[in-house]
Amino acid sequence: MGHWLERNIVEPGKLPLLLALASFVLTFVVTRVVTRLIRAGRGPFGNVSAGGVHIHHVVPGVVLVVVGGFGALASRHGPGSGVCAVLFGVGAGLVLDEFALILHLADVYWTEDGRKSVEVVVVTAALVGLVLAGFAPFGVNGVSTDELHDRAAVAVSVAANFLFSLLALSKGKARTALFGVIVPLVAVIGAVRLARPGSPWARRFYRRRPRARARAGLRVYRHDRRWAVPSRRLQDWIGGRPDSQDTRVPQRQ
C-alpha cells in the first residue's frame, strides 16, 4: 500500500489533491449532519446571524477557497501546499453544499431545487476521484516498459470513456455520462441508446424521425417511472428530505 501510494499519489504530486478531496467530502458530510440537526432542533448547533442577517456557510466557504487557492499557488511544494489543499477542500465543500442557493439566488436549501447541491457535490467528488485513480502516466520517475504500456492503456481507455460520455451527455443523459467516465460500460450504453426528448442529439437527429421521437418519449416515461422514487430516496438519504412546500426566501441582489 505504501509503495502504491508513493508511486501513484506522492511522486506524481497528487497528495494535495487527495487531501483536498478527503477534506471536501468530510466537510460536506459534517455540514449536512449539522444542518439536519439544526433543522430538527437537536444538538447545540444553531444558525449564525450578524445584524439580523443569516450568514450562510457559503460565505466562510468562499473565504477558505480564496485563501487555499492563492496559498496553493504561492506554495506549490512542502507542507504548505498540503495545508492549502485542505483549506481549499473545506471551502469547496461549504460552497458547493449551497450551490443551489447561488444558482437560484434564493434560500432553496430544503426545497426541491436544493437537490442540485447534492448532485453537484457527488459529481465533483466522482470526477476528482477519477483524476486520482487515473494514475498520471507522466511525472513518475523510473517507470518500466510494462508500466509505461499499462499507463498508456489507461490513458487511452479514459479518453475513449470520455468521448462516449460526451455522446451520452449530448443525448440528455447527464448522470449516465458522469458514471460512464468511471464505468466504461455505462458510457457505451448511454451513447448507443435513444436520446432523451429535447436533448441536443434529439433536436438534431430526431427532427424528421417521428417514430424515433415517439420511442424516445415512451422510454423516458418508463425509465423515470421506474427510477424516480429510488433516486429521490438516495438524495434524501444523502442530503435530507426537502420541505413539502416551497418556502424559498429571495436573497438580496
From TrEMBL:
Keyword Membrane assigned: yes
Alphabetic keyword roster: Membrane, Transmembrane, Transmembrane helix
Domain of life: Bacteria
Keyword Transmembrane helix: yes
Transmembrane annotation, as ranges: 15-34, 55-74, 80-106, 118-140, 152-169, 176-195
Record protein name field: Integral membrane protein
Species this protein is from: Streptomyces gibsoniae
